[in-house]
Amino acid sequence: MANWGRISSRTIGNHIRKRTNQGFIGSTVDINPSSGSSSALNGGRSVSDQNRRYLNPLPWSRATLSWFQRFKSTVAAKQHDSFLSSDSDDDHLSLDFPGGKVSYTCDMNFISESSQARVPCYRVLDDDGELIKDCDFQQVSKEVAVKMYSKMVSLQIMDTIFYEAQRQGRISFYLTSAGEEAINIASAAALTEQDIILPQYREPGVLLWRGFTLQEFADQCFGNKADYGKGRQMPIHYGSKEHNFFTISSPIATQLPQAAGIAYSLKMDNKKACVVSYIGDGGTSEVSTLTISYFICLLQFAHGYPNCFLQGDFHAGLNFAAVMEAPVIFFCRNNGWAISTNVSEQFRSDGIVVKGRAYGIRSIRVDGNDALAVYTAVSAAREMAVNEQRPILIEALTYRVGHHSTSDDSTKYRQLDEIVYWKNARNPVNRFRNWVQSNGWWSEQEETQLRNSVRKQLLEAIQVAEKTEKPPLSDMFTDVYDYPPPNLEEQEKHLRETISRHPTDYSSDIPL
Amino acid sequence: MFGVVKQKMLRLSLTQIRPAVSALRSYSSAAKQMTVREALNSALDEEMSADPKVFLMGEEVGEYQGAYKISKGLLEKYGPERVLDTPITEAGFAGIGVGAAYYGLKPVVEFMTFNFSMQAIDHIINSAAKSNYMSAGQMSVPIVFRGPNGAAAGVGAQHSQCYASWYASCPGLKVLMPYSSEDARGLLKAAIRDPDPVVFLENELLYGESFPVSDEFLDSSFCLPIGKAKIERVGKDVTITAFSKMVGHALKAAEILEKDGIDAEVINLRSIRPLDRSTISASIRKTNRLITVEEGFPQHGVGAEICASVVEESFAYLDAPVERIAGADVPMPYAANLERMAVPQVEDIVRAAKRACYRSEPLAAVA
């Protein structure tokens, strides 16, 4: 008995070592799979050139199979014969099962729950904003770089001023993107106007990049007559059909399967565009019925979400997108915190990037505080999504410098010096500025000018928004349906009659 | 002259038999019968043919021809891009359908039963129903969620619940419930064409039932208005409102009541939201008595809503308290005898109508 135990553990150890050496889990996923790297599922055999077009993180990818194949499961399996060649150094033979051919082994080995090394993170600029030698990156023009930087600064200032406005009681709620400016702006810059955005809620920078004005942001936060949302939603729930930015909706992760659906529609219409859907680290755990209520005590979340994403929006969204071969980019902002739930309590996997492989989705981990890296990764992802009609998963590592929202005080569950460190030493805005400045494209003077100008514009926008009339009563009853049904018309009529009969009960500053 | 007389005689005899003929004629289309299943299938087929944006998705809708064969033949005709077999992820495919609808397609999402729709209810309510309002008209959701609802036979608690009142309480949704083939076809076409999200609750036990259909019905432009109830049987003594399977029960009850001299008016609601309050009200003002019939649980049900609306609008016209006939307030049991007792039967409706007409014991001694 003892002998058997020893032998098997040695064998297991050998196998795991063999596999990790051959880049089993935790290998860097190339954007351009030109290398012959393979997974242990192949038993470490390299893949011949002619089959490279099938080469994907998973050896049995269906990416190049036509749609009809899914109805002929065993026929499809035979297609994979070609690259499961029998030149092996092991006693591996192959088995036929629904889902394809698979080699078998007589050694019972469990795949390790984690690889020895974490998936490395793609970055281009170092912490001081200097280009790292010999890095792949997409060059940006002065114009684009300056626009990117200016928008990052605007986002920073917008967040600060609106946050303060909430604290002063002028708006009821706000949520900052502090620390995630690079993600917001650089990802938006890498897309085209036709690409459809399904945000979570910490991506107003995408809308800012696309031309939403500071006044328009303020109007939504104040819920006034000029708000495109007609005063129906809480602050920060921006939406603009014109900018292809879908209205923000509070339930977490619902946008993921929706994104797959929209991407499928783009595919059916043969459009040369993709969908980009954003999610946080917490949202990847989402089971669809869970909703975050911003006003419920954050202590409820102290013990973390259950990590059950088997029948949930994250799972469904990614799984369907892969099966339907839909052109969607899932952009996960892993900022370390889901309100008070740290990532160590959110999941036990190596972040989100490794989950891509579980769905047959090409994925990359990128330094979310490096604007150039984010820009390059999103550009490449977009090209693959549109030209190859496939979903892509991007995990951007970053840090949520601000509190979750104005209903949260994060010093209650994390150290103040941790926050300060990220705010100062790892600031994405400063980092990018250093790079832009080192190219001679920006100066201190322009910096001061920009900051003063944006601040002034924002303060004015707030003043204007505050004074603007609220939406009229009629806006309460429209858009429930395409045309108001008789019962709603009746209710509105009844309400107006009541108001006219009891004017003292209704404040006069509400327009009818 | 003989010819004229002969003609006159012929005409006379024709007049004599005309009533019979015309009676036949109103049923002459009874020569044409169609099951609810065929009616739904034809509606889906024609709408998909007319508008390339319409597509169907759900579990087993494609290769299996539909769990209840409602989508028979559609995969073959329209291909896998328009008839999608989905994995078992209601939340997922409801979300995807809503996303496709945001973009402008017109998905018809099938739930194998609406009991499973609870796993997708966040998408139905928060992503579909409320989006047009929350986005101030920028995101409309022309989606239809359809499938069997309510009790089938011997399927137990988790496969028998009626969701009419759940969905009908939510603004932003339209909720339709067909009874006959005419209802099924006309309302499904209306639902698919409607720019708002529609929850279309069918009934599994009705799928196989045949109903007479008219020529008008067979035309591809046939459509029924949303928000209008149908008076299935005109009467003057008591109003019975019902929907879905219960309409059949109410009609049978009306036949029994007729023998006892009670002339019942049976209203087939068809549309639970928006509720056709004016038709119901007009009927009450005529009969002065109301029985509401539904299969679902009594508390917060459709009958409660109808009762409240009648009290609001026509209280002075009521000669008897409103009674609701509903399913038993228990999760549906499986054993056949218990199941029978948990769902309204024809006799329950008859007794209630008699009580309303003061033809039997008072309310307190209900049996």
UniProtKB/TrEMBL annotation, chain A:
It comes from the Eukaryota. GO terms for molecular function: oxidoreductase activity, acting on the aldehyde or oxo group of donors, disulfide as acceptor. The keyword Amino-acid biosynthesis does not apply. CDD domains: TPP_E1_PDC_ADC_BCADC (cd02000). Residues 482-512 are annotated as: Disordered. GO terms for biological process: branched-chain amino acid catabolic process. Keywords: Oxidoreductase. InterPro entries: Alpha-ketoacid_DH_E1_comp, DH_E1, THDP-binding. Residues 151-286, 311-472 form the Dehydrogenase E1 component domain. Residues 490-504 have a biased composition (Basic and acidic residues). Pfam families: E1_dh. This is 2-oxoisovalerate dehydrogenase subunit alpha 2. It comes from Hibiscus syriacus.
UniProtKB/TrEMBL annotation, chain B:
It is found in: Mitochondrion matrix. It comes from Hibiscus syriacus (Rose of Sharon). Residues 34-209 form the Transketolase-like pyrimidine-binding domain. GO terms for cellular component: mitochondrial matrix. Its cofactor is thiamine diphosphate. It comes from the Eukaryota. Its main location: mitochondrion. It is an enzyme of class 1 (oxidoreductase). CDD domains: TPP_PYR_E1-PDHc-beta_like. It catalyses: N(6)-[(R)-lipoyl]-L-lysyl-[protein] + pyruvate + H(+) = N(6)-[(R)-S(8)-acetyldihydrolipoyl]-L-lysyl-[protein] + CO2. Tetramer of 2 alpha and 2 beta subunits. GO terms for biological process: pyruvate decarboxylation to acetyl-CoA. This is Pyruvate dehydrogenase E1 component subunit beta. NCBIfam families: PRK09212.1, PRK11892.1. Transmembrane segments: none annotated. Keywords: Metal-binding, Mitochondrion, Oxidoreductase, Potassium, Pyruvate, Thiamine pyrophosphate, Transit peptide. GO terms for molecular function: metal ion binding; pyruvate dehydrogenase (acetyl-transferring) activity. InterPro entries: PDHB_mito-type, THDP-binding, Transketo_C/PFOR_II, Transketolase-like_Pyr-bd, Transketolase_C.
